[in-house]
Amino acid sequence: MPLLSMPPLSVNLIIIIFLFIVSSPTSHGADNENYTTCHQKKYDCGGQIKGIGYPFWGEDRPPFCGVQGFELTCYGNESTTIVIQNQTFHVLRINQSANNMTIARADLWDNLCPVELSDTTLNFTLFDFGPHPHVLNLTLLYGCVPNASYDHIEARGHFQCPEVAGNQSSSNINFFVEDLYDSYIPEWECKSRIRVPVFQEGLYAFWGDDHMTVEELVKQGFEADYHETDKFLACDSCNYSGGECGTDTTTNQVICFCHNGPQSYMCPGPGVYLLFFPQLFH
To answer: Where in this chain does the record put each Wall-associated receptor kinase galacturonan-binding domain (predicted)?
Structure first.
């Protein structure tokens, strides 16, 4: 009987048999250990960052449980950092359901005047800035000659730097503007400028609170979204089937660790068939 003329139930059973065959595990032992490791060893550090799984890894959670570029480091069981494009960021929060995190630059954490000044950069293959205007850029300007062209900038937007940091004259000033107004400050009037993202609500709070400093505004960080969409879609299928997402460290592709061995996409079992063919179980 041709496949197309078979009753729907028969076709579904054939598909189920096919799925079972192609998803049958090819090896055991160490692969079961990978499932157990990724399932049990979530990343924990301090009170804010707890129970973090794929795509993150670090500390006692091994690389095959996450994705390259998502390594977390815990300091004194109090603070977490991540390195992106050779810049170190403090990780303040991770929202795994929304695939985003709040991070703040470590080099500006206690001092807005580091020796090396650089823009904030992300690896856009893995990350992106949170949506505008929820996240917006500030331009921090250093060693600016006092000039009437920006006399209108509020004094609260100014911050102090040790002279040695920027090798600047004591008469020079440092201040920030929203990125939108950066072009109004001539290049030659300031020695350096860098772009730093912040939350829009944090900026509003700054202007409404006379006691809040520029340093405190920057330490609130900004949202960074992580978006390896193809891997996350494959990971959803793996999770629905009872597996643990990981990475094949040889091919750098997503892999599904199951109780009985690794699979490409999902674990075999009734949960998979219920997901795709719920009519068979009614």
So the answer is: 38-105
Assigned domain for 253 exists: no
In a domain, 97, yes or no: no
Split into its structural domains, the chain has a count of 1
Q: What is the spatial distance between Cα 92 and Cα 79, in angstroms, rounded to a whole number?
A: 8
CA R_g for the chain = 26
Residue 82 near residue 70, CB atoms below 8 Å? yes
- The answer to the question of residue 277 being in a domain is no
How confident is the model at residue 132, as a pLDDT?
A: 85
Residue 150 pLDDT: 63
**For 231, left (φ over 0), alpha (ψ -120 to 50), or beta?**
alpha
Residue 147 sits in which domain range? 117-227
Using H for helix, E for strand and C for coil, what is the string for the chain?
Answer: CCHHHCCHHHHHHHHHHHHHHHCCCCCCCHHHHHHHHHHHCCEEECCCEEEECCCCEECCECHHHCCCCCECEEECCCEEEEEECCEEEEEEEEECCCCEEEEEEHHHCCCCCCCCCCCCCCCCCCEEECCCCCEEEEEEEEEECCCHHHCCCCHHHEECCCHHHHCCCCCCEEEEEEHHHHHHCCHHHCCEEEEEEEEHHHHHHHHHCCCCCHHHHHHCCEEEEECCHHHHHHHHHHHHCCCEEEEECCCCEEEEEECCEEECCCCCCHHHHHHHCHHHHC
DSSP-derived letter for residue 57 is B
Q: Are 118 and 125 in contact (CB under 8 A)?
A: no
pLDDT tens per residue across span 190-204: 899 999 999 999 999
Q: Is residue 6 part of a domain?
A: no
Higher pLDDT, 37 or 181: 37
